[in-house]
Amino acid sequence: MRQIRYLYTIGTDALYTFLADDGWAIASHIALSALMALFPFLIVLTALAGFFGSKELADQAADLMLQIWPDQVASTLSREIHDVLTTSRGDALTVGLVLAVYFASNGVESLRVALNRAYAVIEPRRWYWLRLESIGYTLVAAVTTLAMAFLIVLGPLIIAAARRHVPLIVESNESLLNIARYGITILAMFTALVILHAWLPAGRRSFVQIIPGIIFTMLASLISGVGFGLYLARFANNYVTMYAGLASVIIALVFLYFIAAIFVFGGELNAAIIKSRLPRGVSLQAAQSLEPGEKQA
């Protein structure tokens, strides 16, 4: 009974703080920033894939990125994404790429704003250092996505080579590759959330402190994706009727809006749990500015 009361207290505290911090408005900001950053990010992805000698990797990477999206949402953007990935750009390694990296980093900046509010911390770093950090995260994400796509491409060759030396009890490569694809995607999502919660906002948080919000974000995003997919299967025509040619963009924006709200609430949930375990008189902001050894003292 005590545990249920504790969970209820934490949940209501996180909800009230989410509303007080304008969580819905921040979620809409993240959704719009993410959608606007998606295509510049794909341009960066294509340029890097071409630099490594295989533009087809960008297609594989984009498929991997959309793997966790509902089919109805991913299919609405697939044609536009394919057009971006297959368009030749002479300026891709000059001014165009620099601008693409800058605009893609806006998505990271929106996440920083959301987490700083959720954890009730004030950002002490200079704006240009923050922007450089966001650009760094963007480039690392692009290279990592390409690396994961490369593993997926090499999957059939690796399995075929292993079959010749080690007997594998697998009926077909397809099922094993699907498991690997989903496993890599989930692992990448978990790793990205850990990096975002631990290092993106100001202050310091331990791995244990950020895990509850991460688990909530992953589970709630999965449920939201399934639910939104079922909704679109029945009512997708409503968007076409109302928004005409913009229907695909609006569908993606609504989906991102729900995911962003879940992400923001995950941060608020972590903050509520941290507050519940603080000694009397210690503020949330002060607790996150201390080293682990100082907290125990």
TrEMBL record:
Gene source species: Nitrobacter winogradskyi
Keywords carried by this UniProt record: Cell membrane, Membrane, Transmembrane, Transmembrane helix
Localization annotation: Cell membrane
Xref: Pfam families: Virul_fac_BrkB (PF03631)
UniProt cross-references to InterPro entries, sorted A to Z: Virul_fac_BrkB
Ranges that cross the membrane: 26-52, 135-159, 179-200, 207-231, 243-267
GO cellular component, one term: plasma membrane
Name of this protein: Uncharacterized protein
Membrane topology: Multi-pass membrane protein
